[in-house]
Each structure stands twice: as C-alpha cells, then as structure tokens.
Write a structure and sequence with these properties.
Elements (H helix, E strand, L loop, with lengths): L8 E6 L4 E5 L3 E2 L10 H18 L12 E3 L5 E3 L14 H9 L7 H4 L3 H6 L3 H17 L15 H10 L10 H4 L8 H10 L6 H14 L5 H18 L3 H12 L4 H7 L1 H8 L4 H9 L1 H4 L5 H13 L7 H14 L5 H15 L5 H14 L5 H16 L4 H13 L6 H12 L8 H30 L15 E7 L3 E4 L22 E3 L1 E8 L28 E2 L14 E8 L14 E3 L10 E3 L11 H7 L51 E4 L34
Parallel strand pairs: 10-14
Antiparallel strand pairs: 1-2, 3-4, 4-5, 6-7, 8-14, 9-11, 12-13
Helix pairs in contact: 1-5, 8-10, 9-11, 10-11, 11-14, 14-17, 17-19, 18-19, 19-20, 19-21, 20-21, 21-23, 22-23
Length: 719
C-alpha cells in the first residue's frame, strides 16, 4: 500500500533465515526528543493513515504503538508495523490468530484481551485501532503506559481530553472513528493547515494558491526549520515549476532560503534557482533579477557561468522593456561571479547594444553600468569599448543619459590616457558646456576642469622629468637639453637654453603636442627699432644676455625669444616691434650667401629646414678665419648682424633648399645700417604663447570633486 502517511517501502530481500526491508530514511518515534516533535501534525498524520486503512481499505492495523511510528527528516510521522494488518472478514484473520502473541496486552482493547472474537468481528475495523490509537496519545503526553485498569488524564491537552476518553472506552460502540477526530479543535494549527493545503495544492485554483502563498509568507517563520526545509520547500518548488503561481512561490522560496547555512542553501535552493532561470515565464525572470542581490553571494561561480548565464543573458535582448531593464540592473550584482571571458566579451557587447535601446531609461542605465564595469575590464577591452561607449552617451538626446556619461567619464578617468583625454574626451565634452539642460552643463564644466587639471599636471610632470636629466614620458623634449626656468613655453612649461646640434646628430622630433621643440617662423617684411636695453635679440648677443640659438643649426635668424608674445606689435619702454604680412613670430633677414646644406631627413621634426653640413658655429659666431683677420681684437669685431665674408661661404649643396644670394634683391638692414644679410627662413622658440596674438592662461583651475558614488537617484527610479 502507498499513502503519504505510510512508511514508504523501497525494496526487500528474503534470505533463508531473515527478511530485509528497505524504506525511506526515518528514525523511530521513541528516538526523537519530545520538544522536537510537531505533535499536532504527527497525530493528524496518523489519523489520516488509520482512516485510509480502516475506511478506504477496510482493514484493521492492530498494532498502533510507539514502536510502529517513524519520523522523517521533515518531522512527518509515518505509520508502519504491518505484521497484524488484515481483514476481519477472512476465515482465519491473522490478527485474531496472532494478536495476543505479538502485542503487549496493555495496548489491546478489552474484547481482544478476553478473546471475544465474535464481538471483534461484528464491529467495524476502526473499533480496535481507535483503542490502540488512544494508548499512543497517552504515551506521547505522559510516557510509558502503566499496566493497570483504567487511564488517568495526565498531561493530555484539554482540547484533546474528551476525544481521548472516548477512544479508550470499554464499550466498543462509544469509540469514535478517525474522520470524527479530524474535526477536533486541537488540530486547528497553522502547520496542520499548511500540510492540508500542500497535499491538495495541485487541485486548487490559482486564486486559492495565491492566497495560500500570501498567508504562508506572513507565517513561514513560525514553522519548524525542518518542516520548512523538507516539507514546505519541495512542495512550493513543485508548484513554482508546474503549479502556475510563479513569482509568489519564488518569493517564498527565497525567504525560506535566507535561514539556511551555505551548504544547505547550495543543496536545496540553488537547483531551484537554476531551473527558475530556464523557465519561459517572464514574471519569474523579473522576480529573479530583482531579488538577485539577496542570494547571489550564495551561488557558486561555476553554476553561474555554466548553468545560469546563458538564460540570464537572454533578458538583454528580450522584446519586453521591463525584462531588459531588470536584467540590466541585475548584471551589476552578478559581476563578481562572472568569468573574465564573459565580462570582456558578452557583457560589454550587450551594454553597447542597449545604448541604442528605444527606451531612454535603459540607455541611461546602460551607461551607468558601463561606468561601474570599468574596474573589472581588461586593458584591451577598455581601449576598444570605453571611449566609444561614453562618447556615444554624451550625444544621447535624453538629458539623464548625457549626465550619466559625464559621471562615467569622471569615475573612469584613471583608465583614460592623457592623449585620449586631449584628443577625444575633451572635444566630446565641449558641446555639453552649452547643453540646454542646466544639470548637464554644470557637470560638463566640472568634468572638463578635472580633465584639464589632470593634463596640466601630466605636462608639468613630463617637463620635470626632462629637467631631472631624463626623457619625458612621451619623449617630448630631447634628453640632455638644459632647462631655463626664468622663461616659459606655452602652458607654463620651462624653455630651453641654446644647444648645438650637428647634421649628423639632429635633435629628435617632439612627440608631445604640449612641448614644441623648434617652431619655424617666416616673415616677408619687418620694421623694427630697438635700443641697447631691448629684451629682444634677433641674432648675436645683446646687453641683457639673451642669446641666439646657433651652432650647427646654421639657420640664419634662429633665436630664443625671451619676451612674451603679447609684447609683439606693441610699444613699451624697451622695445617696439611691428610686423606685416607675417606668417610667424620673428622677423626675417636677408638671406646669407649660399652654403652647402644637409636636409634633416626630408620632412624633419623642425620644419624641414636645410642646414649647413660642415658649419661649426653657425653664421654669427667668430671662426678661426675671422680671428686671424682681426687678430682677436674686440674693437675690430664685426657687428653680430653682419654677414660673413664671401671667402668663408661654402659651395651650395645639391640637396640644399636655400635660395642663393644672387636670386634675392638686397634689403635695407634697419638694425645697424650695414649691408643687409641674406634673407632666409627663421626658426624661433616662442615663450608663454601658442599662436600670434594668443596666450595660454597659467591661472590654476579649481579642481572639481569626483563623485564618491553614482548619484542616479534623481532619475533612475523613474524607469
């Protein structure tokens, strides 16, 4: 026989001497402490078992004692002891033949002890079993039944006392049947109600199921832990999968799982979660995503990556926006469990697709998710996805999405290189400085100030490294170039003192846009007047010690200017300089006589100038020939602006791009009245300026404060 209240038979083996029976895992009732028993549920289960035997099967059990009752892990009582079970209508019932041999007579009714078999056979089967059930009730509340006539009440509950007295009545006709016992108020207990409903849940309508789950959610903590785990949980899990009650059942399962230790959770709850993710019911999927933060820590990583992820990821592309939104929000909780391969491939691809979603809230949350995902991504993935993704967010028509993009950029700034900041990020932020949304405008200003401050610090760090004797981070300034801290280059960078380079050892080109090496300057006409105290030097040396950048460059008019560009074209106490039709910053002088020159590799880092190939000191320093002619007499020294004698000039090099003196008409030298030097391209290093008539402010920008956390509460809950 099979019944939920009967001990389940699994298998049996018979040998020559013994019979072995295998059952479900149980313990004898006598081995369970009384305070661990759920007595109402246990007695109610036995009533159902006896009713099934007596009423449905028409049999008598005949051996209902404590030794015939077993308890499962869930605390459920199971009836066994089938040795005397039979039908009293048989010709020779085993109960009549063996009852007095197998059972202690104190557990037998008076008519059996007296062997009044005619009375036994003339009464319904429940008459015998009602008596034995009464003795079991006595022993549960009072201990071992004494061997005496009559029963004392002992500790039997008042609600059950009247029923007990009728069960052990001497007159068989006064003993009640099991169906009558089911209506006793003693069994009006929450746990009994729960078991009754669970046993019939498959037959209940959906509104009834939902009402039951709602009631159970409010009272599940009052149920014994073993009963919740082994009785309620399996029934609710089965109802979740096949009963059509979806989210309410899932919420109940999650609540019961919170009280379990990790090993028990992994054994009993995790398999249910895996099956739930595979279900097509979207309401279950949304419920799982919303509750993911409550149980994700208890999910093993291999289970997440191998069994859950494929079903979870389907939510990113679901046709319902609610599912996409819930999946997007839940991915952040799932990140610690995902493998690097999934993070750097699947997740970033899904986020990129969601940035084009038709729902504005989903696009915004995709940007936030991308920003929070940055610390978990590899360098190659960041290079490929970070800047394009956040730049796209800055162009989103939805203001919160643009605002989220700015927040993501600020939080991710440590992962963005300075060149990318200068060439991609800052230009992308620019339009937001005049964004129609005030919050976006203010945050754009704050963000761009942070990035400019970072670039300024980076540039200062690069120049400081050069000043310390090493190349900068990007090799912007050649190693070994002395730094002059009395003057400044564009952006507040220190300038360099004159340094000689030969055609065989040219200066390396600058690779940093913030640190120019040599800036070529060309001019067609110059009007200049200067006194002896002028701070500007255009060739040679002046009284203030500013020097001409000469040497092996040999470029006529190559100078280091010490005045800021703002003084050019203006009059002051020390100098006046006017330029016209100028393409650069420095005046051009007449060209020098032709000389052999060596091109710096075609398109070189200093503007493609052609320099003398063998010149030692350049055009304007004294060489050995001049010293021999003038006898090293300073009084006979030529003016620094005076060209060298023609005898010193070299033959033109075939590769030289310099125009010979014969091809240029002589120009009036306004500086000294001497014959004009030959005109040629001039190359100058300007200071404190970036272009003619403009200057870079050196006033420090007040740094913006990085947000300590993502502040999306003002809009995020609306979507």
């Amino acid at each position: 026989m099979r019944h939920p209240t009967l001990l389940k038979f699994v298998d049996g083996v018979e040998t020559e001497k013994e019979i072995y029976i295998a059952t479900e895992p149980v313990q004898p009732l006598s081995a369970i402490p009384k305070d661990s028993l759920i007595i109402q549920w246990g007695l109610w289960s036995l009533i159902n078992a006896i009713k099934f035997i007596n009423t449905d099967c028409g049999l008598v059990h005949g051996n209902i004692t404590r030794s015939s009752v077993y308890v499962t892990a869930s605390g459920e009582w199971k009836l066994a002891g089938w040795e005397l079970c039979c039908s009293l209508q048989e010709d020779n019932p085993i109960f009549i033949a063996s009852a007095l041999k197998w059972v202690d007579d104190k557990y037998l009714p008076p008519e059996v002890r007296k062997a009044s078999w005619s009375i036994v056979k003339s009464n319904p089967p429940f008459v015998v079993d009602s008596w034995t059930f009464g003795t079991l009730i006595y022993e549960i509340f009072n201990g071992i039944l004494p061997r005496q006539d009559g029963f004392s009440n002992g500790s039997i509950p008042p609600q059950l006392l009247g029923t007990f007295q009728r069960l052990v009545a001497d007159d068989p006709r006064q003993r009640p049947s099991m169906p009558l016992l089911e209506t006793n108020p003693y069994f009006d207990h929450p746990i009994v109600y729960t078991v009754k409903f669970l046993d019939q849940i498959s037959l209940k309508e959906k509104p009834e199921k939902e009402e039951f789950i709602k009631h159970l959610l409010a009272n599940v903590d009052q149920l014994p832990p073993a009963f919740r785990l082994h009785k309620v949980l399996p029934e609710i899990a089965n109802a979740l999968e096949f009963g059509g009650i979806g989210p309410p059942a899932l919420n109940l399962i999650m609540k019961m799982g919170k009280a379990l230790p990790p090993p028990e959770y992994e054994k009993h709850i995790v398999p249910i979660i895996v099956r739930a993710f595979a279900m097509p019911d979207r309401s279950i999927r949304v419920t799982l995503c919303n509750a993911l933060t409550d149980f994700v820590e208890l999910l093993p990583e291999n289970v997440v990556n191998e069994k859950i992820w494929s079903h979870f990821a389907a939510g990113f592309m679901d046709i319902h926006a609610l599912v996409r939104e819930a999946t997007l929000r839940a991915i952040l909780a799932l990140l610690p469990k995902l493998s690097s391969k999934i993070l750097n491939n699947d997740v970033v691809n899904y986020l990129g697709k969601l940035q084009s979603d038709e729902e504005a809230g989903i696009r915004t949350n995709a940007v936030i998710c991308l920003g929070k995902l940055v610390p978990n991504l590899s360098a190659s993935t960041l290079k490929k996805f970070l800047i394009p993704g956040l730049s796209r967010a800055l162009k989103d028509p939805f203001p919160p999405a643009r605002h989220a993009g700015l927040l993501a950029l600020t939080a991710s700034s440590s992962h963005i290189t300075s060149p990318d900041l200068a060439t991609q990020i800052i230009p992308a932020i620019g339009p937001l400085l005049i964004d129609p949304d005030k919050k976006t405008r203010m945050n754009a200003i704050k963000t761009i100030n942070i990035f400019i401050k970072k670039l300024t610090e980076e540039a200062e760090s690069m120049v400081q490294q050069v000043a310390d004797g090493g190349a900068g981070t990007n090799g912007a300034v050649p190693a070994g170039v002395p730094m002059n801290h009395s003057a400044s280059l564009p952006g507040g960078l220190p300038s360099t003192q004159p340094t000689s380079y030969s055609s065989k050892n040219p200066p390396p080109p600058s690779t940093n846009p913030l640190v120019p090496a040599v800036i070529p300057s060309y001019s067609n006409s110059v009007n200049n007047s200067a006194n002896n105290n002028s701070n500007n030097s255009f060739g040679g040396f002046n009284g203030n010690g500013s020097s001409e950048l000469t040497g092996s460059f040999g470029a006529y008019g190559t100078t280091v200017a010490s005045n800021p560009i703002s003084s050019f074209g203006r009059s002051n106490s020390s100098s006046a300089l006017k330029t016209s039709n100028s393409g650069g910053f420095m005046p051009a002088l007449p060209p020098p006589p032709p000389a052999p020159a060596t091109n710096f590799g075609g398109t070189n880092g200093v503007g493609g100038m052609s320099l003398p190939s063998k010149g030692k000191n350049g055009w304007d320093d004294f060489d050995d020939f001049e010293n021999s002619v003038i006898g090293n007499n300073p009084a006979q020294s030529r003016n620094p602006l005076q060209p060298k004698p023609a005898t010193v000039a070299k033959k033109p090099s075939p590769k030289s791009t310099r125009t010979s003196q014969s091809q240029q008409p002589p120009q009036q030298n306004l500086f000294t009245g001497l014959p004009p030097p030959p005109a040629g391209p001039t190359t100058s290093i300007m200071q404190n300026s970036m272009a003619y008539g403009t200057s870079m402010s050196t006033t420090p920008v007040k740094p913006a404060v990085l947000p300590s956390a993502w502040d999306d509460s003002s809009w995020d809950d609306k979507f």
